């Protein structure tokens, strides 16, 4: 019999329960879960005793910008997936921008796969992109294995990924009908009250100047457009990086009317608030913007009530020069925050103080994110036949974020110097120990394209 590995733990997160159990791993899969009292040591097993740590499903971060090829100085597969492993993230889903070329054609998707080969320390799936005129690429990309499609309703920030028009959206939705795939919609629309920062005549080094240029109405109007399309075509739609709590009522109304609609928020909207951002601290800039503490409290309440489905990193790195650190000009700085490595402790540090429990972490960071990208038959749960993707962590331990312990390619972060609760001890991907106590496995996993398993497939 082939050697099996047993993961011995007093606390194992199985769905909504925390139980003493032993996880048996065989051929990269969870073979069996044995109640702790029924386990007896066997010479044929290699046992990994994790002491007093908690074992839960690896995190599935479905909103990550890797940027390779083309902008690998911002981030690449090698550094991004090592950072993921160090944070207990066992699967990432790469956004179709800001790489060059973007993942908007089948050829570009294949180029992305070639670039990722031999560089990934965690499993990796890929979103495709919808841009003007590429609607005939949608079904070929679905058949090749993309998890779904992202579009922008305003300028994305890079020229090679232009925003879509209403006509483009209708064409894309027709292609997506019957496929079981999903359209991810950027929740900003250039609305009637849109204010260009240079027209405000306010100090560009004050965060409030940038915040005023991205009012809540931009999200409200964009989400209205998405919900109408979702209801009309009955195609799965997903609202990315919700920063404002104001559209939550219209999202709920659309769902009650039958829209197959989901919504995410991010760690920075839950951890940071506008009032505490210092002048010139452009490392805090992201789009949509970080809003005030009252808005943040409403986002937490919506999470608790189940009105927001999941929490992701929206890991959007760049080189330090693009952050305009010298001038401190928020209107010119690149908008994006890197937090892939710290997703779990960022969430737990705040959530644990708000009455969230360990099963909520699994639901919001692993299970729901796996469902979004149709990987929930392989990822996001601890159960027999699932991939043996595990994070072993101590919820009560604390650590401080320093440049020395950041594994992202660029170390600039609004979280530098803060202390977080929840230390990742080890990360296992498909039965392989890829990270343990600051050290990585010597070789990456290699190419491993995750193919979504949908109820319907494109013809």
UniProtKB/TrEMBL annotation:
<dbReference type="InterPro" id="IPR006680">
    <property type="entry name" value="Amidohydro-rel"/>
</dbReference>
<dbReference type="InterPro" id="IPR050138">
    <property type="entry name" value="DHOase/Allantoinase_Hydrolase"/>
</dbReference>
<protein>
    <recommendedName>
        <fullName>allantoinase</fullName>
        <ecNumber>3.5.2.5</ecNumber>
    </recommendedName>
</protein>
<dbReference type="GO" id="GO:0006145">
    <property type="term" value="P:purine nucleobase catabolic process"/>
</dbReference>
<dbReference type="GO" id="GO:0004038">
    <property type="term" value="F:allantoinase activity"/>
</dbReference>
<comment type="subunit">
    <text>Homotetramer.</text>
</comment>
<dbReference type="Pfam" id="PF01979">
    <property type="entry name" value="Amidohydro_1"/>
</dbReference>
<dbReference type="GO" id="GO:0008270">
    <property type="term" value="F:zinc ion binding"/>
</dbReference>
<dbReference type="InterPro" id="IPR017593">
    <property type="entry name" value="Allantoinase"/>
</dbReference>
<keyword id="KW-0378">Hydrolase</keyword>
<dbReference type="GO" id="GO:0050897">
    <property type="term" value="F:cobalt ion binding"/>
</dbReference>
<comment type="pathway">
    <text>Nitrogen metabolism; (S)-allantoin degradation; allantoate from (S)-allantoin: step 1/1.</text>
</comment>
<dbReference type="InterPro" id="IPR032466">
    <property type="entry name" value="Metal_Hydrolase"/>
</dbReference>
<keyword id="KW-0862">Zinc</keyword>
<keyword id="KW-0479">Metal-binding</keyword>
<dbReference type="GO" id="GO:0005737">
    <property type="term" value="C:cytoplasm"/>
</dbReference>
<feature type="domain" description="Amidohydrolase-related">
    <location>
        <begin position="54"/>
        <end position="151"/>
    </location>
</feature>
<dbReference type="InterPro" id="IPR011059">
    <property type="entry name" value="Metal-dep_hydrolase_composite"/>
</dbReference>
<feature type="domain" description="Amidohydrolase-related">
    <location>
        <begin position="242"/>
        <end position="434"/>
    </location>
</feature>
<comment type="similarity">
    <text>Belongs to the metallo-dependent hydrolases superfamily. Allantoinase family.</text>
</comment>
<dbReference type="GO" id="GO:0000256">
    <property type="term" value="P:allantoin catabolic process"/>
</dbReference>
